[in-house]
Each structure stands twice: as C-alpha cells, then as structure tokens.
C-alpha cells in the first residue's frame, strides 16, 4: 500500500487595515518542496507540527510553497495570487489523500477581505468534496463562514501568548488522518460574537483562562473532538469582525452545540473584563532610571508590528532621548532611508540622521547623532523560544546607531522582535541593556522572560487598544464601540453539508 500524501503550505501573515504600507513579496520568507519540510522539521511552528506528526505516521508532506511574513499592511494581490496559483496547480495534479494548511487567518489584500477563505474554497473545488481539508490558524484569525464551509476542521492556537503552534499543526493533521481512517465524522457547531478583546486577553489569565479550561475539559472528556476560541485581529475593518467559537462533535452535534453556546455566552457576559489597562511609558522609564534588578523589556503597544503596525513610531525614542543618552537602552525603528544613510557612511562613522515617523504620525521624526556600530545587507537568526522555538528567520538591511549608551536599531523592513535573537543578529545584546523595546504587545513575554521583566506600555499609535481613535466603518457595529443588542446563535455544519 502506497504511503499517504498530504498537501500543505500556503501563506501566513496578519494584516492591519489601517496600515498604509502594502506588504510586498520582499517581506516574505519563501520556502518550498523538500527544503520547506526540512526547514520546518522539529520547530514549534504549525508546519513543524504537521511535518513531525506526518513523519511519525509515515505520511509524506508536499509543500508547493510557503510564504511567511511579519504582520503589516494588507498583502499585495499579486503575492497572494502567486501563492494561490502554486497551491492550486499542485492540488489539481492530484495524488493527495488530504490537505492540511498551516495558515494564519488574519490576512487581507486590497481586494480580498478573506484571502484564506478564498484559498480554502478554491482548494476544495480542486480536490473535490471527499478529500479532508483541515487547517491550523492563529487564535487572532478572522474566521468567516466561507472558511468554515469548505474546511472540515479548523484548529486555533489555544495559548496567548502563543506557545502551541506546533501542537496546533498536530491537531489539524490528526483530524485529517482520523477522517481518512473513518474514525472521525466532524460536525461543527459555531457562534459569532460581535465584540473585540482589547488587551486583557491572555489565555493564562481570567477571563479567557476559565473559558479555555471549559473547552479543554469537554475535549478531554470526549464530549467534543476539538474546540477553538478565536479572538480576532482587532484592526481589521472587514465584515463580521468579532469573536468566533468552534466546537466539533464526532457524528453528532448536541454536545458541540452546548459547548459553543456556553463559550459564546461566556465571552459576551465578560466582555467588559476583556478590556485591559497598562502602565504609562513615563512610569516604566522612571523605574529604569532608578534601577531595576533586571532589564525592563517593554512592548510598545501603540506600534506593534506583531499586530500589523509599521514599526516606525518614535514615541519611545523621543522619551528616551529626553532622558539623555546615559541609560543603556535598545529601541528599534523601521526606516529604510536611515539604514541606507548609515550603511553608506560605514561602520565607525559618526552620522546625524532623522529616523521614523513616516507612517506612525503620533510623534514626529527624531533626529540624533551617533556612531554606526553595526550595519549590513541582512542577518539570519533562529528563535530560541519557547514560542516558535527553532523557527528560522531573516532580517533585511539594517544598521545600529550608538548615541552614548542608547542603541537605535534601524531596519529597512519592520520586525516585532518577539525573540531576543533579532537584536543579537544585529550585534545588540539585550541582557546588557536597562531598557529593551519590542514591537509587540505580549507575544514577546515568553521569549524574554529569562532576560528581564516584561511590560506592555500604554503608548499611542496605530495598534493601540484605543480603537475609538481608528476609522472603522465596514466592521461596525461591535462592542465596545457600539451598543449592540446581542444573544448568541449557534449554527451547525456537517461535513459536505
């Protein structure tokens, strides 16, 4: 009997509707074929989970292509069309027993509010109704009826900050194999809740901790096969934005329906508690100046590349410069022109350069003079984890400018700095700083926990949780911007139905 073959791959990026910088092909890490499988093997990534589970089961994984990028503005239509074309060409050639997709679920293009749904729909048309299609999504995915109509089982990360990317890939793979073996007949019960979680949405803290515990208990007891709570990317101005809960029964729906209703009601009942508050930037920097036992690792809430921000806000940089340059600190700023200026001057040169503030308009550009202490056309790194441990990544053109004890890390492309290895790849050691700034809200906390005290700071900007300041039109109404009269309604979908 020939070994089973599954089709994997696709495109993973989280988009921000209000970021004017289009995400183009140069922002993506692209892998394909055997190299993509080898690169993913043993990593805590969704494709890594799929690849490792497949190897253990003696199943071949075929990856026509996989595009991965940091969060940012909408993805250029041509990039998505390229990926979709490669995936469909492979699917139409046939020979696959199942399709298992390592995606994100929160992507946009200028013409598509739900590219992942379009990809899954087209793959379904290519492989037919009998081939299992499953997918692993980030829990911040925007889940649409089209995705659910054509995907037999959709699995979300169960942790935020995310630590179970690999496990989520394994869940999606296991469901596909169970369907092939006749051991699973997935029946979906799902509900949409028109609300956003705004900051108090860690899964290791209440109220989400309790909701996830109830879902996990139902899975462990065999009442449902799988359950997911999608909290949605908060900066998508798309129809149907909000929370989505999924519960899959095996051949029956009653217990899945009950769980989906319970989770949806729990989210709505505790909606006010899901809005968080954060310390001020000034208070955190005052602590750093006074001295702390370990470095303060600050998440710049207002310009989180991890949430799709452009990474060029100067709010924190201006605050650091106002203190002088005696405080050892590392702050990243995206500015391709400044990088080119520093690289042209060369390592060791003293330059005066104006940086940032091109797209993030909450603070003006900052001008500073310093020595170029590092520069290059790019650098590579491997996540130390635990989040995405083993995942390899690259940094494009960069330069590091030193002004006193302050280090400004300049890059041509935006990065979230979720792992300390980003700084180390460019010659900056986070452990030697009193303050390290990341472009992340909380995902950075897992990978920096061994280095310092991790704090999300209340800074203004495009990715601030102050969503009333953003020009939402299509996505509304939703809580907390609107007074929504709502009672959860559970819908049921059977495979092929």
Topology summary:
Elements: E1 5-7, E2 10-12, E3 28-31, H1 33-40, H2 46-57, E4 60-62, E5 66-69, H3 77-93, E6 98-102, H4 115-127, E7 133-137, H5 145-150, E8 153-156, H6 165-180, E9 186-193, H7 208-220, E10 226-230, E11 243-250, H8 254-269, H9 281-290, E12 296-300, H10 315-322, E13 329-334, H11 336-345, E14 350-355, E15 366-376, E16 379-382, E17 392-395, E18 398-403, E19 406-411, H12 421-425, E20 435-438, H13 444-448, E21 453-457, E22 491-494
Parallel strand pairs: 1-4, 1-6, 2-5, 6-7, 7-8, 12-20, 12-21, 13-19, 13-20
Antiparallel strand pairs: 3-5, 9-11, 9-22, 10-11, 14-15, 15-18, 16-17, 18-19
Helix pairs in contact: 2-6, 3-4, 7-8
Strand content: 15-25%
Number of domains: 2
Main sheet specs: 8 strands, mixed
User: What is the gyration radius calculated from CA atoms?
Assistant: 23 Å
* Distance between the ends: 31 Å
The low-confidence runs, each spanning 5 or more residues with pLDDT under 50, are: none
**Mean pLDDT over the residues:** 97
User: What is the share of helical residues?
Assistant: 25-40%
CATH architecture of the largest domain: 3-Layer(aba) Sandwich
CATH topology of the largest domain, by name, is Rossmann fold
Number of H- or I-type helical stretches: 13
């Amino acid at each position: 009997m020939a070994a089973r073959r599954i089709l994997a791959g696709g495109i993973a990026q989280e988009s921000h509707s209000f970021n004017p910088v289009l995400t183009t092909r140069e922002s993506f890490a692209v892998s394909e074929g055997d190299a993509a499988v080898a690169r993913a093997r043993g990593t805590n990534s969704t494709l890594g989970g799929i690849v490792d589970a497949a190897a253990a089961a003696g199943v071949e994984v075929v990856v026509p292509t996989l595009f991965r990028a940091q969060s940012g503005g909408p993805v250029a239509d041509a990039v998505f069309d390229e990926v979709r074309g490669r995936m469909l060409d492979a699917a139409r050639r046939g020979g696959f027993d199942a399709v298992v997709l390592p995606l994100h679920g929160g992507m946009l293009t200028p013409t598509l509010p739900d590219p992942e749904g379009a990809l899954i729909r087209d793959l379904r048309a290519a492989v037919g109704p009998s081939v299992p299609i499953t997918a692993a999504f980030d829990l911040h995915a925007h889940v649409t009826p089209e995705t659910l109509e054509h995907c037999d089982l959709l699995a979300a990360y169960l942790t935020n900050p995310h630590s179970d990317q690999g496990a989520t890939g394994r869940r999606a793979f296991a469901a596909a194999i169970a369907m092939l073996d006749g051991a699973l007949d997935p029946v979906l019960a799902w509900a949409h809740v028109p609300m956003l979680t705004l900051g108090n949405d860690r899964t290791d803290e209440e109220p989400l901790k309790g909701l996830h515990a109830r879902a996990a208990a139902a899975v462990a007891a065999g009442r449902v096969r799988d359950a997911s709570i999608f909290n949605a990317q908060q900066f998508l101005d798309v129809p149907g934005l909000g929370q989505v809960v999924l519960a899959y029964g095996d051949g029956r729906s009653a217990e899945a329906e009950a769980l989906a209703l319970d989770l949806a009601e729990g989210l709505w009942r505790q909606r006010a508690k899901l809005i968080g508050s954060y310390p001020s930037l000034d208070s955190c920097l005052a602590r750093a100046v006074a001295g702390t036992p370990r470095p303060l690792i600050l998440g710049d809430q207002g310009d989180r590349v991890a949430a799709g921000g452009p990474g060029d806000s100067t709010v924190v940089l201006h605050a650091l410069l106002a203190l002088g340059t005696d405080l050892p600190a590392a702050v990243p700023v995206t500015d391709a022109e400044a990088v080119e200026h520093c690289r042209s001057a060369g390592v060791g040169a003293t330059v005066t350069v104006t940086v940032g503030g091109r797209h993030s308009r909450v603070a003006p550009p900052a001008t500073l003079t310093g020595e170029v202490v590092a520069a290059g056309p790019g650098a590579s790194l491997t996540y130390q984890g635990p989040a995405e441990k083993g995942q390899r990544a690259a940094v494009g053109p960069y330069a590091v400018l030193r002004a006193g004890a302050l280090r400004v890390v300049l890059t041509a492309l935006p990065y979230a700095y979720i792992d300390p290895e980003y700084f180390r790849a460019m010659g900056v050691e986070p452990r030697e700083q009193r303050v390290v700034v990341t472009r992340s809200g909380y995902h950075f906390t897992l990978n920096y926990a061994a280095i310092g005290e991790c704090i999300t700071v209340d800074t203004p900007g495009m990715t601030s949780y102050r969503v009333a300041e953003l020009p939402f039109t299509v996505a509304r109404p939703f809580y907390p911007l609107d007074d929504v009269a709502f009672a959860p309604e559970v819908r049921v979908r059977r495979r092929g139905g």
